[in-house]
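One chain is below:
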Amino acid sequence: MLITLLTDFGTADYFVGALKGAILSVNARAQIIGITQEIPAHDVQAGAFTLLAAYSSFPTGTIHVAVVDPGVGSARRPLLIATRNYFFVGPDNGLFSYVCEREQGVRVYQLTNEKFFRAPVSATFHGRDIFAPVAAALSNNVPPEAFGELIEDYVRLDPLAPLRESGAAWSAKIIHIDRFGNLITNITRRELSGDEFAEGARLEIGGREISSFRRFYAEETGGAEGELFAIWGSAGFLEIAANRASAARLLHAERGQTVRVAGLKS
């Protein structure tokens, strides 16, 4: 069984190695794959987006352990989420919100059966002592219902979908900024198609208008270095990018900033 790890632990400390050891102590045959350990510290929303962008690349049945957990040791609950195709283990702080929006057959269990935990449970390292051993037990074919009771009031971040304005416009936002300075919005092909740019659609952000659309980053459109354009990214969201430059730097953009889609036909 494949188990992935997504954390904000970095790679300089012992944390990720300890997670792997806790998994292998329960299932020595588990295959462990790292998605990333470089989520910014305590940044639940960044973890939620990265998990959303990566999880479905893995085979059906994969167990995703995600630990971005600023509330470790508090009253926040530990969770196991079972969907039609995947399992997710981690804290109840919104980290799995976007996945639950996209997946079908979502069942959320609060982890309460301590027989599957590593003893003693540290108040500061639930990744090693709760999430890793639970994932390993799950990979040994323990059924989800053995770990705890179903709940419905799990923590959710704000919904991903943009808001429809009056008329033919959308109010969207930046949900992620990648290392290249590309601005990932929450606009999908349900709200906009690339063809609509040719018909007058435009993005408005920070007093700037973007009406150029590219099929791939290096597409030759005669634009100068730093020209801003829109492009469909690999995660399925519309991105704002700049020709051989950082759109984030050029626009002084931040996550959560509003992006308006205007010029659409009614």
